[in-house]
Each structure stands twice: as structure tokens, then as C-alpha cells.
Amino acid sequence: MKYTCFTGGAKGSDIIFEMESLKKGFEVVAYSFDGHSTKSRNRYILNQNQLNEGFEHIKIANTRLYRNLTNLEIYTKNLISRDWFQVKNADSIFAIGIIENETNVSSGTGYAVACAIDNKKPVYVFDQTCNQWFYYDYEDDKFQIYEEIPKLTYKFAGIGTRLINEEGIKAIKNLFANI
Q1: φ, ψ for residue 28, nearest 5 deg
Q2: What is the CATH number of domain 4-177?
């Protein structure tokens, strides 16, 4: 079975996941939209109906995040709406970012993670503030330390912060070395 990485084509974590996937010969699907600034050569352009579908899931995820979704610029709305498709098509989620509390991840990455949690998918987050992997524990309904390097699944979302640091890059490379 062939591996597929679903990502968002953004600079930082997304592109690192994409590059490491391509080195391994994996398929990459980088969800995008018209007017999206990306250097990915593996763009899948979402149409307006798909972006609308994505935003419906973002609104559901926002019941966990409690963020203000009113008056978003169209570009920002499209960025977070595409997050749904990274999750929808993946059987697990691997994110680089910052866990802001026991149940949520900061910034735009938080929307994809919340969508994944809403859909009970395995979620692993490498927190760049403490250089540690965490997993979402559905029994305790919160993130817990994951002592090992997680295992990539055949259809995974590789996502995260644009502000990836050296430890975050190393964490991604270790994921791919752990296959």
C-alpha cells in the first residue's frame, strides 16, 4: 500500500512534510484554493462548494476553540476551510505547533486538530515549546505525553505551524525515519 500525505502547502511545517514525503516516494496532496500563495507542486485546488463544506466543519470545530469567526477576510476563511480536507481524507493527523491548553492547539493548526478530534481520528502533536510529542487521549479528553516517535499511517495529514523551528524539523524527519 502506498503512503499519502495530505497537507496545506503552506511554508514551514506543511512544506517540510511535503518534501520528506516526496523523498520517500509518497503521494502528496496539498489542498489549496484560487489565490492561495503556495510553492507546492502538488496542489489540489478546492472549489467554492468544497470551501463552504470545509467552513461548516470549521464552525463545528470552533465550539471547542471559542475563536471569533465573524468578519474573517476571505483568504483567511479559505485557509482554515481547507484544513477540513486535510483531516477528512486522512486516517491520522501529525501536527507541529504549540498546545495552548489540555484540549487545543494554537493558531490555524488548531482548526485542523479540532476537526480531527471532532471526528475521533488519531492526533499527534509535536509541541515546539517543550520539544515533545503528545497524543489526544479520547478517554481523558485531553492531550497526553507520547513517549515514543509516532508511526505514520498510510493516509496521514502532515500539518503545522509556519514558524517551524529546528526541533520541529527534526521531529518530522524522525517520523519518516520511523517507518
Answers
A1: -130, 130
A2: 3.40.50
